[in-house]
Design goal:
With about 120 residues, this protein is mainly α. About 40% of the residues lie in helices and about 5% in strands. It is built from 4 helices and 2 strands, in the order E-E-H-H-H-H. The C terminus is likely disordered.
Length: about 120
């Protein structure tokens, strides 16, 4: 999956929306929950609405690869959580646990397994 100019990925990090700490899997999660772009904006008010639309368009054009990437991210989050003694200490509500992202967005998700190309 080739990333467009509005998405970025550093080695060992998740795919992020350029200029933001919000990851692709966050937008994809809400979109797949039936959220409209405007509703996603309500969850992430720092994102420009146009960027949300572009991100959804990218997702739809690359859905099979993007879904595989999101599954790897969810598996990595579950693996990290399993290694913690008390995961509720630093737990972010994430797609992996089926809860809302209300609250801060984490920056610890590592989705480098398999990477993107």
């Amino acid at each position: 999956m080739t990333l467009p100019e509005f998405l970025t990925q550093q080695p060992g990090e998740s795919i992020r929306l350029m200029g933001h700490r919000i990851a692709l899997e966050h937008v994809v999660y809400f979109y797949n929950q039936g959220y409209s772009p405007e509703m996603i904006l309500g969850q992430f008010p720092s994102l420009p609405l146009g960027l949300i639309h572009k991100t959804i368009g990218f997702y739809l054009e690359n859905q099979a690869e993007a879904d595989a990437y999101v599954r790897r991210c969810e598996a990595e989050v579950a693996h990290q959580r399993a290694g913690r003694e008390d995961p509720s200490d630093t737990f972010l509500r994430s797609p992996a646990n089926g809860r809302s992202f209300a609250g801060r967005v984490h920056n610890s998700t590592r989705c480098s397994q398999g990477g993107v190309g």
